[in-house]
Amino acid sequence: MTKIRKGFFRYDNVGMLFVLPAFIYMISFVGYPIIYNFILSLQNVTVKNLRTGQHEFVTFKNYIDLFTHDDVLVRSIVNTLVFTVACLIFQFLIGFALALFFNREFWLSRPVRGLMMIPWMIPITISGLIFKFMFSNDVGIINFFLKTLGIVKDNIEWLTNPKTAMPAVIMTNIWIGIPFNMILLAAGLTTIPSELYESASIDGASKVQRLFRITLPLLRPTIESVLILGFIYTFKVYDLVYVMTTGGPVNATQLLSTYSYKLSFDMFKYSQGAAVANILFIVLFLVSLLYLRFIDTEIET
Question: Are 76 and 255 in contact (CB under 8 A)?
Answer without folding.
Answer: yes
